[in-house]
Design brief:
By secondary structure, the protein is an alpha/beta fold. It is built from 13 helices and 9 strands. The longest helix is centred in the last third of the chain and has 25 residues.
């Protein structure tokens, strides 16, 4: 279901100055290291957001995802998914334990994670400043309406080219073609996906060569910024305990994700420490 554009603005193309600057400062995507078979990017907020905006302004399609422990383990244990996500231009270390593993196994010296909700806001701010239109895809109509309203309130210059809540099933080929046409016609340069792992990552891979924009899979960021779910306190986030906060809030839905995958993560980290891993 499509949601009306609450920005109420005509979508404009990025300025010539912005495009020229993007060509002059065009960055390469950050290097990656192997975390249990998943190629995670050694990056920070500024670098990753800069690469996303530069690619969007230059009209270069790309796929970016943010991986916490659950996503890393899901991809690590599924060879087909792992093959697909390892083609992405970047996978940011969304969770503190992922950052810790990268520092421990590869001496990356990362000082912070690249948190999906925070990355979303930074991208939106830069997109608003540069006149880069965005598209929101995922969640429910009510969440999208609140999300769009909140983002435009926070960043009045933000151009939301379109937003829609997809059906809770795989799109038919006809629906896929119609989606591609809508996104293309909207003029969007950044396509946010809020479908959750692994659905959003499989979607991004499927549409990587069909959508002429930068896809960014941000998971629960839609719910957080719509105000329908609460984020963990800063002290819990800093100590890698956000999973505990979310587990307490939704125990029936999330107990397996966190208790099982966290245990597997610790086991894989211990094994990787003993046998060693290879950098990429």
């Amino acid at each position: 279901m499509r949601i009306p554009n609450l920005a109420s603005k005509m979508i404009e193309s990025p300025s010539r100055e912005s495009y020229k600057r993007s060509q002059e400062t065009k960055c390469s995507w950050p290097r990656k290291v192997d975390v249990f078979g998943v190629h995670v990017s050694v990056t920070d907020y500024d670098e990753l957001v800069g690469c996303i905006l530069n690619s969007a302004i230059a009209g270069e399609p790309a796929v970016v995802s943010l991986f916490a422990v659950h996503a890393v383990i899901t991809a690590s244990d599924d060879s087909e998914m792992r093959r697909k996500v390892n083609t992405f231009q970047a996978i940011g270390p969304d969770g503190q334990p992922v950052r810790w593993a990268m520092n421990w196994l590869h001496k990356t010296k990362l000082t912070d994670r690249v948190y999906g909700p925070e990355t979303t806001l930074r991208i939106c701010k830069s997109a608003a400043d540069e006149g880069v239109p965005i598209y929101l895809y995922g969640s429910t109509p009510s969440v999208l309406e609140s999300l769009s309203s909140n983002l435009v309130t926070k960043y009045p210059k933000l151009q939301i080219a379109g937003s829609e809540s997809p059906p809770f099933r795989k799109l038919t080929e006809e629906e896929s073609e119609e989606l591609v046409d809508r996104v293309h016609d909207s003029g969007a340069k950044i396509f946010f996906i809020g479908l959750g792992c692994p659905k959003q990552d499989l979607f991004a891979y499927e549409f990587a060569k069909r959508l002429n924009c930068v896809q960014v899979a941000v998971g629960a960021a839609f719910d957080f910024h719509a105000g329908t779910k609460s984020t963990a306190p800063a002290w819990m986030q800093k100590r890698g305990l956000e999973w505990l906060f979310r587990l307490a809030a939704e125990p029936r839905r999330l107990w397996k994700r966190y208790l099982v995958t966290n245990s597997i993560y610790v086991f894989k980290l211990c094994r990787a420490t003993l046998v060693g891993t290879k950098s990429r």
